[in-house]
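Researcher: Please generate the 3D structure of the following complex. Treat every line as part of one assembly.
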Amino acid sequence: MLLRHTTDKVKERNALTVNPAKTCQPVGAMYAALGVHGCLPHSHGSQGCCSYHRTALTRHYKEPVMASTSSFTEGASVFGGQANLMTAIDNIFKIYEPEIVAVHSTCLSETIGDDLGQIVSKAYTDGKVPEGKHIIQAATPSYVGSHVTGYANMLEAFVKYFPEKTDEKKRQVNLLSGWVEPSDMRELKRIAGQMKVKSVLLPDTSDVLDTPMTGSYSMYPKGGTTVAEMVSMGDSMSTIAMGEWATKKAAIALDNKCKVPFEQIDIPVGLRATDRFIQALSKAGKVSVPEEVTAERGRLVDLITDMHQYLYGKRVAVYGDPDNILPLIEFLIDMDMKPVYIVSGTPGKAFSKKAEALLSERVPEAKFKNGPQADMFLMHQWIKEEGVDLIIGNTYGKYIARDEQTPFVRMGFPILDRQGHNYFPTVGYMGGIRIVEKILDAIMDKIDATCDEVKVELQM
Amino acid sequence: MIINDPEKDQEIQANVRTVPGIITQRGCTYAGCRGVVLGPTRDILQIVHGPIGCSFYAWLTRRNQSAPAEGEGNFIPYSFSTDMQDENIVFGGEVKLKEAMREAFEMFSPKAIAIFSTCPVGLIGDDVHAVAREMKEELGINCFGFSCEGYRGVSQSAGHHIANNQIFKHVLGTDNPTRKGKFQVNLLGEYNIGGDAFEIERLFEEAGITLISSFSGNSTVESMAYAHIADLNMVMCHRSINYIAEMMEVKYGIPWIKVNFVGAKSAAKSLKKIAEYFGDAELTAKVDAIVEREMAKSEAVREAVKAKVEGKVAMMFVGGSRAHHYQDLFEELGIHVVSAGYEFAHRDDYEGRKVIPDIKIDADTRNIEELEVEKTEDAELWREDLVAKKAALEETGYTFADYEGMMPQMKKNSLVIDDINHWETEKLIEFYKPDVFCAGIKEKYVVQKFGIPLKQLHNYDAGGPYTCFEGAINFYYEMQRMLDTKIWKLVDAPWKSEPEIVGSMTIEA
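Model: Done. Output below.
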């Protein structure tokens, strides 16, 4: 057994987290900043933070992930990190020439009380920011929230800084995306295009973290939301914010700053969350839904009805981020699967309410928890109490899946051991088809590999 | 940066601060302590005291393989954290840490608990050492802490030193079993990435050499407790572990030698050096037979692969010893290493231990504790026999406690670069156009976008083992794979160099 110390004896814990279903804020801030064109994320802390975050993102995307660091030493930690950040800003603009430096804090700089806003404004007044270049900053203390919070804070920082309201409304819709893959960002744009809705997507990591091999390296790939696009967001007709945890703050900030009204929806994972996205696009763009979109939806429903016998009643354990797993749970229930165990390390009272609303009727036996001690160890203990037919979550689930001989579908962050997530989306109807395909593959592969020889079926 | 001349004593600047804003390979003290040195030890429950990230990122990410026996403690697949919240930062985290230790003890019954401090811990003044003392008393198991906050030192290196100190203080020498074999050794600074230590262990076992403890690949804290019964310490990664070797010699009189099991010839040399130390005819015969047999196997592969890759150009920037050790494997294949450097090494790893007395101790190094170690007062533990053995062998020219560093081995006019940064990496690639580049994950896809294959020498790209003879064979084949492929020639689409047919078949929209 890989996790040989995990038993079914669930004990209440108040202090110890074991096998977390979350990580810390700065990595989310770094990922969000990579979705802006010409932007270099900067970690204001010790070197290790930046190194770990770059490593985690690189291993997940198998792409270059560039970010700089304030390289705190003990002295900086005692006397404050202003001098380090000022030196860093100087060096970054001289050597790496980004359009934007997106500074995020760390638990180190937050604990000693460095005020990023004050340091950055000093950098501007001291003339350290070349003409036409920008520094934005977000406070992302690692001891609050999770990586999703960091993403939300950095997104809010972009929205507070760039969008401007002029007298001229633009016939476009802002799309604020929660934490999804580059492939998903590309798909969101494709769907908006299908709907004939002109959109600005922020952030947009497509063509940043899924770049082609060309034989040359560019530190700032062609993708990412541009400064001009971000500025124009202040004149958009409305905003569709996808994923409350990651985008609500930014949507509110944009509404406050530029009076762009927003609609908060889920990330369009699965059938009905995608329905809501399509309806939101239709409403925001004042367009009717084209036949090709309805046809894609029909294909997804067709697949589910065709394969329903393999899905019905299957018990599923799900872990990950609220914005991603809440619509996934809804989708699983729509397919008559039973998401019985759900954990998310990301705090937020809304999670329980939403999960309860989704689960109470169809899966009343479901156990769910988020926030402190809502970790993968707890979920595994629940699985030990009564097993599941499928586990869905990031790569760390493979240890549980192997020990419990349970089919496993990788979704979420990080995925360190399988490919495809940054090329093939899981949002939208086509993304829904991919999720169903992956679930069926996992379940059917187990049947094929383990059923009695006389029971092996040619056609399934 | 140095243009190498092995004939001269050249001084390189190393183990100094990275300039803020520079995109560096380096990590932090916590990474060196928790990740590198203690990470591979399976039976000690390691609680990271801090916000969640630090524990999350050190969770199974270093490929330290471990082979626990049935029923033995193995916490490597687990991540334990106090997940500090803002109220813990404001009001202190000691109470939560104690509670977490109690919960861990109750649920997991570990033999020992280690506490790792992350940045905020030192800043808010949580005393992890006091907590450890108190909990050691309360729980009745060994508990100790590491002040390995990420901001200490200038790189991972400080964390190695802190880890060495605490293991020496709190673990080593706390158990005294009887002898376990005729030739007892410890292997220091080998972390069993991709199963490297398994290769070494297999050959030791065949030769009749008893591996008492390893620091720390495939290791247990249980074995570290009686590591002082060994007759010889072997140091593989000099940078991360020489401290314990030095301290064990002062306290117990156990001599240490530098070994290297990367590269077939180096492995053979190291095995023979061990046999020579023990001076036992039977052991020597066994080692000679193993070396002869294994060399025959690896030579056959080496020659076949060398014919395909000879004359290629490599460069490597990694670690605190790997950028040196791996040069042996490249040499064996006739691949030229035109430039190399470490990420977190000190001057002695470049220039050799002879420069240690001349290394200036700066403020960043000064705040890492230097343990005052004295000779043990327990006459039974003091190894006068080994002291005498050392003296006798030294007469014959056998070298102890020495490491000559990377630079003497490198060719004249090769470039030696410490703490390489991203900008330098790009320039080197432009200038040398190497056939293979060795570094870590953060550099991997940058270099590959240039059309140059990168071999990770931290985690081996899920490959390995690369130690000893089987490992050398693996590496030869790996270089054949990487240098023989035609995929890089397919990067450009055919229509990039051929004229495109200007279409008349396009359908008018």
